[in-house]
Amino acid sequence: MELIEKVDMERLENVINCSNFPTKKPNDSSKWYKMVLSMFSYYKKHCNNEGQHITKYNRTGGYGRLVSSNSIQHMPKEIRSYLLNESLLDIDQEKSHFTIINWLFDQYNIEDEFIKEYLQDRDLCLRTHGFFDKQASCVMLNKENCSKQHSRTVHVFHKKIYGENGLIERMEKKFKKDGNKTIKNIKKMIIEKFNKSNKQPKNIRGKLFSRILQIYEDQVLQSMIEFIEDSGDYHIDVLMFDGLMIQKHPDIDENFLRRMEQHVLQNTTIPMKISFKSTKPDWVPIPKEDSSEDSDTESVVSVLADKNETFSKQIIYDLHQNCKELKETTQEYMDYMNNFFCHIDTPACFGYRPATGMKHRIIKQADIRHISLWNSDLWNFDPRLLSYSRVDALVDFSKNDIIRDTNPETGEYYNTKILNLYQRPSWKQDPNIEDNARPFFEFIYKIICDSDDTLNEFVLNWIAYLLQKGKVGIALILMGLKGVGKGTLKNALTIIIGDEYTIVDECGSRIGSRFNSHEQGKLLCVFEEVLNNNGERHSRHELMKNKITDTKTIYESKGIDAVDGTNITSYIYITNGVNPVKIEHQERRHVALDVSDSQLQNKNYFTGVLKNVQENVRGLRDYFQTRLVTSNDMTVVNTKANQKLLYINKTPTEEFIDDVLPLLFGGSTENSTDEIINWLKHEQKTHFNESSVTEISGKVLFMIFSSFCLEILDRVKIPLRKYFYADISKHPKYRQVVQSNNHKATTFTTRQK
Fold this sequence. Notes:
Blueprint (H helix, E strand, L loop, with lengths): L1 E5 L2 H8 L13 H16 L6 E5 L1 E2 L6 E2 L9 H8 L3 E6 L2 H12 L5 H8 L1 H7 L5 H8 L10 H11 L4 H11 L4 H15 L7 H28 L4 E4 L3 E5 L6 H15 L5 E4 L19 H10 L6 H14 L4 H10 E6 L2 E4 L8 E3 L1 H4 L7 H4 L7 E6 L9 E5 L6 E8 L12 H4 L1 H11 L4 H17 L5 E5 L6 H12 L4 E4 L18 E5 L5 H16 L2 E6 L2 E7 L3 E6 L14 E5 L8 H13 L1 H10 L13 H9 L3 H8 L1 H4 L9 H10 L11 E3 H14 L9 H10 L3 E7 L3 E7 L3
Parallel strand pairs: 9-12, 12-14, 15-20, 15-21, 16-17, 17-20
Antiparallel strand pairs: 1-2, 3-4, 5-7, 5-8, 6-7, 9-10, 10-11, 13-14, 18-19, 22-24, 23-24
């Protein structure tokens, strides 16, 4: 395959004549610089006057990635971005190898916790399991022996690939059975390469698995190329292993990528997510003549320090070297560090953000050295250090990040400087938002609320309160068949609130987890299909009850001390089951919704709703941020779904108390049917008449209860008498009378007012 690359020749010349090639290690040998310089000189030689370079791509050994011997493909990202100067779009396969592994796991019926965590929130997953960056996770992936430093979860995942009856073994057996010699040929190629170099073969299965992943990665890439070629006259400039770089065009937008994903899915069955990667340059070449001893070094690094929107290892290296030469910490160095780092006293940790405007994430001191050239002696004790007393997530927060905390010992107020992990999303006013976003509002009313006016108001208020105050204190339960639109609401809210403020847990593995820092600063947490299993439902329900209402909690990450924090998270359950949560009589934590099936499996309808939300996202944020809502509006609505869940979860004794006792003791109940009344009159006529009893013996009452269970409820298993007596006695409307004589008799009567 041949492609034509085009670069800015003036910028290429600047790179060749610069003194600061970006390197991964500060002290690389001169040999490395000569190699880099030779590569760029060769590239320049083969460019025509217009900066065009013809690049040929081939597959090493006939399997895997398309690579070139000399191309932009092999240049460091910093230099590549500088040369292209944002002239191209970088289209990337997101989490390519892990997505492929997850797909292969599905093909071979392998379940795994780690890969789901990784695909759901890569950064959180890496921090949780001790990886410094995604490169470290790739190293683990391509080694047949797993390092002891990794967590047990990672070891389990690794074993499912390399262990006995693992993925590789299963694939080898299937390929052999199908007569596919791909794996056999790759193995042979790897061993032959070792033989030619007279080296002892090692990590053969790791190299094999890497090549297998590259094969599937290339299949996705070829499908992406096919889609581009079929879509119009677009010019692909560079292949980037798991992506490509293409000349900018107004038609190549997010919608274009979504259609590309569908094409890939149809062709390969791999659910690969495709996105744009940043091509913004964050490296500036320094000419060789400006690096002489007579040059003003501090002025050079000052120019670099001004370019501080995105953190750059190269810039911090140059600034740090300048400090060493001057034997003092310069203000440029401190300003640059303070823009991306901060110190936190409680818990003892640091904050880091990769770009201006992003939220800080919490990192351990050990992680610092893998991000920057941090000098502890200079940094930790300098009074110019940006530091905070503690970290928290607060929706209502003053702009000067100073709040008044109470001293728990004295009760006095004192000032505390807090790093707020929550940042309010931006929005703009749209006076016509209700008309412009009508498909979304109709979706809420007709589908989510099943055309119920009261419920519609509650849901809109719920979303508004979440955005304005953070924690609602009431969890929504979306019930219904698969394909009715529950996931559409989740996706719509993720767009409106912002992906960085939402978290989705598909398997419920995080419920009850000790390490819960992933929820800190999140406005919304969605649990999908975690409450259907009857064995786990009630235990998870109990764990979640406090999380739903508590405004304070303890957050903990691996390797960092636990710390008290503000819980601003609200919760949504999504379920296809009929009994996800035990609803109580005086329910105050859950509102269940039976989602309408009027648009069942209508993908075009739901896609249209999400498109409408995307087009009006800022206007919708403003609508919900300014909608008049108070805590009084956030009281549980007794929905039909709530009543259904309450009825489903009734015990036989509870049904007896609600349906039979009111009739026996002269009351009435809406739940009592003619069937129950007739049963009392005719089947139990010796114990029941038109004039209701005022007192009844426990023995007789239990006999009636047993008959009720067998004949009305059709239940063979009947609770023990002592538990029946205890449950009746606890009811506020009735009381137990125990007569102490030669024998004990239990009677029940209406409670005296």
